[in-house]
Structure formats: C-alpha cells, structure tokens
Amino acid sequence: MGETLYAKDVSACFGTQEVLHKVSLYMPSNSVTAIIGPPGSGKSTFIRCLNRLHETATRATMSGQVLLGKENVYDLNPILARQKIGMVFAEPNPFPTMSIFENVAIGIRLRDGKRLKHLSDEVEHSLVIANLWSEVKDRLYESSGKLTLGQQQRLCMARALALKPDVLLLDEPASVLDPFSTLRIEELIDQLREHYTIVIVTHNLQQAARVANRTAFFLAGEMIEERTTTELFTTPNDKRTEDYVTGRFG
Ligand SMILES: Nc1ncnc2c1ncn2[C@@H]1O[C@H](COP(=O)(O)OP(=O)(O)OP(=O)(O)O)[C@@H](O)[C@H]1O
C-alpha cells in the first residue's frame, strides 16, 4: 500500500474554460501532501483529475498524465482507479439509510464479490484504522445518521479504507467539523501517513502546517510552487506564495 502518485502536465477544462494549466506534482508515498490556494484556484479540480472523478462532470476534459507507481491511471478501468485512489469529501456523506456496518461492508462486497467469509473482520479492521471502532462497536446496526458529524466523517474514511486504496484524497475533510472533531481527523491523518499516500486540500493554512510533509500552492489554475511545508511557509521562493501564506490575500 502507499504507491507514489505523479501528476504530469495536467490541464483541465470545463467546456472551453481552462481551469488547470499544466500542473506537475509528485506526491510521495507514506507522506501527506497539502494543496493550498484561494477559492477557485483549481485545487478540487486537480485532485478530481487524480482519481478520474473530473471526467464525470458535464463538459469536463483533461490532458496530461497521472501515474500511480508505474501504472497510468488513465489506462485503468475508472472504477478500479477510484478504488486505488480513494476520496473523502468536505461534507460527510455516509449512506444515510444504511447502518454503520453496512456503510463499510458495501465497499468490501463490491471489491471482493462473493468472498464474504471475513466480512465482519474486515469491517472491524477498517473501523479500527479509522479510529472509530471503540465508539461504534456496540451500535454497528444503528443508522449512520445517528453519528456525530465528526464520527460520520471517520466512517467515510473507514468506507474508503475498506477498499484497500494506495492513495487517499481528502477534499477539505474537516471544513464543516468542530475543533475537537477536526483534531481527531488530523490525528487520524497522522496515523494513516505510515501506510498510504495522502493528498489533502485545505483552506486552513494552520492545518496544512500541522499535518503535511509537503505543501503545494495553487493560484488561478497553476501550481506556483511546492516544497516541504516548513520551507513553503517560512522561505517561499515566489512572492505570490509569500503574500498568500502571510495573509495578504485569499
Ligand atoms: N462543475 C463545474 N462546471 C464548471 N466550472 C466549474 C465546475 N467546478 C468548478 N468549476 C470552476 O473551476 C474553477 C476551479 O474550481 P475548483 O473547485 O477546482 O477550485 P478550488 O481551488 O477547489 O476552489 P474552492 O477552494 O472554492 O473549493 C473555478 O473557476 C470554478 O468555478
């Protein structure tokens, strides 16, 4: 688990409007890469190109390459690409009519077909690694809608992890959570880094500073620079990065 992800000259359009322009970014395994930048700079579009979600939007096109290890993501079946490169969104979106157990089991069933012998063990394992097991083990068959927002988001993490991905893409995963739930998500990201390649989009610069090994700054569809998080925040190469990280705009 935890293959490197390499985006090479990725451009993306909606109709005739180009919203990403030749972005290249190496996202190492066992590491957290943060993507920061003002609203509309192309952060979400970029990560949606990484797991082929961009192509599901109306009039969306892309060019360039995305390599997962040595494999070209665009040569894979899109469903398999999204299994290998899982995604968690800003709004926790568990399947509301399903139980906590079913929310995780459904992905395992889709992945493994009829080999269900170890289903309960696998659901437990995914909930353990998402740091949720101890809170839900006695209520697995309750509706997922009864969980707090923070727990729902960790359930979404468990659901993505159940597919045994190499990469986890997190699009503002804590933006609707309270500070305590945010902390739990950040602790989880810190633990998961050991086994996965993690890419997180965040508006919260302090969050990038806390969780990311490397940070990339996006502006108006271009990647301006990418460095270790400490370097990007303390000695940025580009004046625009400096202006953004010091709060002069954004
Ligand atoms: N489905 C869509 N159809 C048309 N244009 C879109 C669509 N989604 C995004 N865009 C446009 O693409 C550009 C980049 O948007 P994107 O959401 O990738 O930026 P972002 O940096 O993630 O922004 P935010 O921080 O606000 O989430 C914006 O101009 C946006 O309006």
TrEMBL record:
<keyword id="KW-0547">Nucleotide-binding</keyword>
<dbReference type="Pfam" id="PF00005">
    <property type="entry name" value="ABC_tran"/>
</dbReference>
<dbReference type="GO" id="GO:0016020">
    <property type="term" value="C:membrane"/>
</dbReference>
<dbReference type="GO" id="GO:0005315">
    <property type="term" value="F:phosphate transmembrane transporter activity"/>
</dbReference>
<dbReference type="GO" id="GO:0035435">
    <property type="term" value="P:phosphate ion transmembrane transport"/>
</dbReference>
<protein>
    <submittedName>
        <fullName>Phosphate import ATP-binding protein PstB 3</fullName>
    </submittedName>
</protein>
<dbReference type="InterPro" id="IPR027417">
    <property type="entry name" value="P-loop_NTPase"/>
</dbReference>
<dbReference type="InterPro" id="IPR003593">
    <property type="entry name" value="AAA+_ATPase"/>
</dbReference>
<dbReference type="GO" id="GO:0005524">
    <property type="term" value="F:ATP binding"/>
</dbReference>
<keyword id="KW-0067">ATP-binding</keyword>
<dbReference type="InterPro" id="IPR005670">
    <property type="entry name" value="PstB-like"/>
</dbReference>
<dbReference type="InterPro" id="IPR003439">
    <property type="entry name" value="ABC_transporter-like_ATP-bd"/>
</dbReference>
<feature type="domain" description="ABC transporter">
    <location>
        <begin position="5"/>
        <end position="245"/>
    </location>
</feature>
<dbReference type="GO" id="GO:0016887">
    <property type="term" value="F:ATP hydrolysis activity"/>
</dbReference>
